Amino acid sequence: MKHPFGPLYSRESRVLILGSFPSVRSREQHFFYGHPQNRFWKVISVLFHQDIPTTIEQKKELILGNRLALWDVVASCEIRGSSDASIREVQANDLSIILNQCPIRLICCNGKTSWSLYEKLIRPAVGREAVCLPSTSPANAHWSLERLEEAWGVILEQ
């Protein structure tokens, strides 16, 4: 399966947030973090003291207005449903599209799968470290919203 949409960034983006591969809901919506139980939009909204976006346009404004960029590590793979654990036959995205155009100061991975795939497939090519942040996925239920907000606060330093 190929990634169904491209990255979200502007030339002012300073923090790149990488997921693994879009969930079924995200693939249907052609946009990042589309599952209603995913806490990504809540976390980012709280960190930047903004309302939780409900439309794709509002989500784009939240990301770009705060100098963030979004993409995923995986360009194509075999996957069952939305399960990161089922990801096989991975081809990585080419991050140079963003890294060559933006003053990215920090690369963050949303969850361990994203981070481990980044470390294996992308870091050797780009030579840049990434921070592994706890997943905002509803499958990561043992992390409360408050704990996620605290851990994700690292993006505010940039």
Keywords:
6 strands; 32% helix; 158 residues; Uracil-DNA Glycosylase, subunit E; alpha/beta; 4-stranded parallel beta sheet
List the helices and strands and how they pair.
Layout: E1 15-19, H1 24-29, H2 40-47, H3 56-65, E2 68-72, E3 74-78, E4 88-92, H4 96-99, E5 106-110, H5 112-126, E6 131-133, H6 145-152
Parallel strand pairs: 1-2, 1-5, 5-6
Antiparallel strand pairs: 3-4
Percentage of residues in strands = 15-25%
Please identify the structural class as seen in this structure: alpha/beta
CATH H-level superfamily? Uracil-DNA glycosylase-like domain
Using the coordinates above, name the CATH class: Alpha Beta
Strand order of the largest sheet: 2-1-5-6
Total of DSSP H or I helical runs spanning 4+ residues: 6
Low-confidence stretches: none
End-to-end separation in angstroms reads 34 Å
Overall shape: it is globular
